[in-house]
Design goal:
The complex is a heterotetramer, with two copies of chain A and two copies of chain C. Chain A is an alpha/beta fold. Chain A has one domain: 3-Layer(aba) Sandwich (Glutaconate Coenzyme A-transferase), CATH 3.40.1080.10. Chain A is built from eight helices and 14 strands. In chain A, helix 1 packs across helix 2. The longest helix of chain A is centred in the N-terminal third of the chain and has 11 residues. Chain A is globular. In chain C, strands 1, 2, 3, 4, 5, 9, 10, 11, 12 and 13 form a ten-stranded mixed beta sheet that branches. In chain C, strands 6-8-7 form a three-stranded antiparallel beta sheet, covered by helices on one side. The chains are: A alpha/beta, C alpha/beta.
Amino acid sequence: MESTEKYTSDEMMSIAAARQLRNNQICFIGIGLPSKAANLARRLHAPDLIMIYESGTLGAKPTRLPLSIGDGELADTADSIVSVPEIFNYLLQPGRIDIGFLGAAQIDKYANLNSTVIGDYHKPSVRLPGAGGAPEIAGAAKRVIIMLRQSAKSFVDKLPFVTSVGFGSGPGDRRRFGLTGAGPTVVITDLGLLEPDPDTKELVLTNIHSNVSVQKVIESTGWKLRIAEKLEVTEPPTATELEAIRSLVSAGE
Amino acid sequence: MESTEKYTSDEMMSIAAARQLRNNQICFIGIGLPSKAANLARRLHAPDLIMIYESGTLGAKPTRLPLSIGDGELADTADSIVSVPEIFNYLLQPGRIDIGFLGAAQIDKYANLNSTVIGDYHKPSVRLPGAGGAPEIAGAAKRVIIMLRQSAKSFVDKLPFVTSVGFGSGPGDRRRFGLTGAGPTVVITDLGLLEPDPDTKELVLTNIHSNVSVQKVIESTGWKLRIAEKLEVTEPPTATELEAIRSLVSAGE
Amino acid sequence: MAEIVSLKEAIGSLLNDGDTVALEGFTHLIPMSAGHEIIKQRFQQLTLVRLTPDLISDQLIGMGCVNKLVFSWGGNPGVGSLHRLRDAVEHDWPCPLEIDEHSHAGLTNRFVAGASGLPFAVMRGYQGTGLDTYTSTVAPISCPFTGEELRAVAAINPDLSVIHAQRADRKGNVQLWGITGIQKEAVLAGKRSLVTVEEIVDELDRRPGDVILPSWLITAVAQSSGGSRPSYASGFYQRDNDFYIAWDGISRDRQTFMSWMNENVL
Amino acid sequence: MAEIVSLKEAIGSLLNDGDTVALEGFTHLIPMSAGHEIIKQRFQQLTLVRLTPDLISDQLIGMGCVNKLVFSWGGNPGVGSLHRLRDAVEHDWPCPLEIDEHSHAGLTNRFVAGASGLPFAVMRGYQGTGLDTYTSTVAPISCPFTGEELRAVAAINPDLSVIHAQRADRKGNVQLWGITGIQKEAVLAGKRSLVTVEEIVDELDRRPGDVILPSWLITAVAQSSGGSRPSYASGFYQRDNDFYIAWDGISRDRQTFMSWMNENVL
């Protein structure tokens, strides 16, 4: 049931990300794009998605989109709330989280993420918010889903700072660093989906959103992007999906 | 107001111990003799004694004498209950406890305690219950009060097993072991009170209960007991104290 | 997500001979009926982990289910000795019992490390005591910042951790309150976990001081009303102190103990 | 036992220039009024510790109270950058700002170690990241049992830890509920501690999910109704999201910021 309506590339990105999530998956959710996608999944095919936020809320069922990871809406609708030490030491570190769901400012071809600085660390041209929960989510979640908008500035050949490890400089690095999770399995952007090559761990464009050209994706990537032999085209949003995403109201609105 | 009534040596011991405690002291209490003495103090001069049990009950105000450190009476009357990790890691280990109040099966002249075995560890003649919370209470409480009945079998020259450290083999050992509290300040028995010599750390008889002979105390001690130059005689129980101790009813009775 | 099954089925499917099994409940919510089920199903050569071995441990040891005990205080609370534990340690009856003995703080931190997915935890303890000598699960460790020597205790991750709680809902979310001891850490440290509950309800109405264990952290939930008797479950029943005192007599003699077990448990 | 004093008196007597001060409250119960009092009393050269520096940190930094920030995520939640923080890091305005930067898990464990009276805590983290390079409070540590290389993080023990809570009783026992974050550990890690509260009541009636901090763990309690505004205090008031968005504009320009502070805080 493809919609005949127009949709934005951001809507496509959120919907493509929401489709990755399933009922009863335990999902550790970063704020911003991941939170929007997870809440969209809950309204569509995954009402029993188990959402964990680093503020300590377990099983939150927000009726409106939370504005921060500590939004009162999350606390009020959670099955329970635990302390921040519990979240990181008892729930994340031992590998109990199925999916770590992260955003970032920049990514490289091995799905390492930067959310710390642009430029020199001590004299940055842009000081970003920093790590938050991301490094240990990237390390310990059973697998990681990443969302960010794709451009030559965000998909870079070399990160100025590695905040969270994807695959380091290639196969074997996760083990060498002692990271217990399997790492990123998919990167969802406003242009398509990238997945790590099973052997080299380099990100490969495997899906392209409809109405996006391969040339556009290549130009929006700061390294020589590999394209899958069988490049799939993302199903456009259905009317139900579009209706759901447009009815998501932020808390406080 | 000395009572003209008769009293037992156990009553004298509990009353002498209760007199050591003050309002607003934070007291980590072992079950048995220490629990009885602390609850007696609460009924007499120290109603605001803050009693902590290793089961996690903070500020318990039992109306009846608890039978175990996890008695429901403690839980029902506590200001709050925390987990066992919190009790040991957040409250005891950092030195927040004013008084660790311990019993034991045996003691030596440096106030080290045994509650583990009599005889060989692997083939003991008597297997005692073991350490429980005692080793870390003895290590980390700001100071320690010890209660046990005095006899040549319980006050021994050499312990078969050191469960909890008093002063090890003398001055300097607590620091060497990294124990942060000051260690035992008084041992209260059914015959009198012993205190560590400030220089040698050897226990010295400083108080004798009335109606007890020094000879009796010496015979009830398995090492050559030192007697203080100014040996004090314990004030006998008052009528109020005796009434209070006799009205202490155990939970479940 | 936790499956809701019968106690018999849970013990039968989650436990194996030779397993390390933790039965936790710090003086409250002791999983007595689960222990009885282990005895009934005649499990052997278990390593039993429990901070405060009490009557249920005495019974498991006396019935020969256990050949190693990891513990920190083994007595009959408020009464005295555990005679079956003593008989096993002192006279190898009914079989030799290896012990790995700790302080409460030490065994607690072994569970904390296990729950945290770490191989060890750090604490200040054991120094100067005899306990250091007889266990291989405590080791010195130096602070990389201050040089202070502390103690590392090895993580414990039982094959099965069993606790008792007041309630679960039909999805297997568990609620317990009162003294909750080391139970959360025991469940999280377990490779598999079983929670027996007094009752299964439609909705868990929250209570002050309660602990919620989400269904997705638990392997199985089994209803077992009175599952902590003769110990207590806050809000449901009190401790049967008379039985604790009577146990001293029952357990003191091997034959009296066996007869009692035959009549009352098997 | 905690003394109940005015906020002005508490900050005046418990804080010194050059102190390390933690202002905690993980996205909820943020001690805003305490931060304002620090600004009003013109404290200088503070080391500010806060997992999630937000508006109050932006204000303290912009007013020149802080010369070192220990943190793990510094943004305007749901809005974007903290412009005063950025201006300090990027352009040394109003003074250079040293930073000691961590992950949430890392700084959390620094508080846990501080609360536990230990010099460090152990975790699995930082490996492979750039964070390792720029801090002296993270170091490798090997498990003495398995040989696994993990990370030690140094304990943090602020001279003063400040949190905001819903209520205290007249003895200084404190109750908080909702998202309680790292607040308990912050108070316990502090050499001194101050809790500001929405109200002081005769009796703390317990609530599901509440945390009780006994009076004997706290140095001082001060009433400060609305003490978390424009953030929120569950059960009392909601977050003023419009102000968070407006702050982006106020804080972007140095002069606009100074005028706003002069009019609204000083």
